């Protein structure tokens, strides 16, 4: 490599999100973009192979996109934004905030009702990778959580020891999804759930997973 070419490579200015889509190739190796693609794919209920089939690449390419080790070309970025339901192609390229799909509403009895027929995207909080989000719509979480508060949960697939004494979104063995404070049960492998509205604990229950609250966006701070 000659000196002039070396100097030219190091003098290139950063490409903005909007300008990047007009380029033949976008090199964007930041973890924020990779995490965003992964989060949107999971929220859409798609596997890496599913997404690969939709945009005409192989599964390994999607894996590279999600690990930040793959160059981003204009057509795949546009196709991914359309297929994954991103507000715009630029949303995939922006550095922050991460888009988070609203999973459901927390209503009576602090039960989570999934939004099966509606897709709502929220600006995610910093520091959380692929969280779950739910909006409080009832008064069963007072006084700790108020109507229109948005709760962001650390997505878990099991019940970890560190959730004891914490407010969590939990899946009970009978299929219900609730937001409650998790307490240790009397029987091994069982847990009790504390309700804010009744100030009472449940009987011993088995949980499939428990995802703790990590961030709360208060209703008064939203428009």
TrEMBL record:
Keywords: DNA-binding, Transcription, Transcription regulation
The HTH cro/C1-type domain, residue ranges: 37-92
GO molecular function: DNA binding
SUPFAM superfamilies: lambda repressor-like DNA-binding domains, LexA/Signal peptidase
Superkingdom, natural source: Bacteria
InterPro entries: Cro/C1-type_HTH, Lambda_DNA-bd_dom_sf, LexA/Signal_pep-like_sf, Peptidase_S24_S26A/B/C
CDD domains documented for this protein: HTH_XRE, Peptidase_S24_S26
Pfam families on file: HTH_31 (PF13560), Peptidase_S24 (PF00717)
Keyword Transmembrane helix (UniProt): no
Keyword field contains Transcription regulation: yes
Name assigned to this protein: XRE family transcriptional regulator
